[in-house]
Design goal:
The chain is built from five helices and no strands. With 94 residues, the chain is mostly helical. It has a domain of 35 residues. Helix 4 packs antiparallel against helix 5.
Length: 94
Amino acid sequence: MKNTIILVSILLLVGCSYSQPDSWHSSYYVPDRWLRDPKFSDYKQKREEIEIGYLERKFRYEEYMDKMQELNKLYEEGVRNREDDHYYSERWIY
């Protein structure tokens, strides 16, 4: 009886270790579809445009830094406003 339990346990362990990924995993686990932040996407696109402009020597380093700081400042203000709006809307729900 002991040998049978040990054999079944080993077969179960071996069978689970050789299993293939489930088909649901590929269709449901898509993080880029779960989380979409249009403000971040816009920020990222504008940041890339500034970086490409600097690499193509369309403006100097000082202008690049000024544009990046301005973009970061605008994005941080937008995030802060969004968090404040979210906080107040949640606060009044309860």
